[in-house]
Amino acid sequence: VYRNYNCDSNTILENSNWESKGLNLRAFMNQINPKGGLGNEAVEIGLWHAVQESNEQESISQVILIGDCRSNTKQEVVSKREIYGEPYWMQTRFGSPTFYGFELKKLIDKKIPVHTFYLCESAKKNFEKIAKRTGGYSKKLDIKTPSGAESLTHLVTEQILNSTGGEKGKELIELYRTKFGNISFTS
Hints:
By secondary structure, this protein is mostly helical. Helices cover 48% and strands 7% of the residues. The chain contains eight helices and three strands. The protein has helices spanning 22-30, 43-54, 74-81, 86-90, 100-109, 121-134, 146-164, 169-180; strands at residues 63-67, 114-118, 138-140. Strands 1-2-3 form a three-stranded parallel β-sheet, with helices on both faces. Helix 7 (146-164) packs antiparallel against helix 8. The radius of gyration is 17 Å and the shape is globular. The two termini are 23 Å apart.
């Protein structure tokens, strides 16, 4: 969960351990509440975290980015970090200011797609651009309807089938779609 620079270093980014049990992930998510605001958000912090994860031995194969606002601009990153002050941020893991474009380039270089789900139309153009640049998918996510969760489930499942299926990945996706339906994504 990424927020904005009016949150301290403990809440601007909150993440769970990798989970194989849905109940544990649900318990983590039940503790998450909206915080921050300030218009455009620190998408760069979420992407920075993805880059850190991609450097691990058990690297990530994709990123799923969900948000209701577009990414901070470079100028917004600088001005919003002034809320706590640069000396504060320099003492945290977020010491070096970054921009979503810088972090996105690192993911592109590693061929890691970023799939984006935007909650509000104001984020659509930015999120579609992020997905397109990385070879990911982009879709509006309506969190108030079952179809939103269904879309997210389909995307994640198809990506897992493609990643783990090797040469048969596409065939597994077709079998999955035959059984559970075909959801279209824009890339």
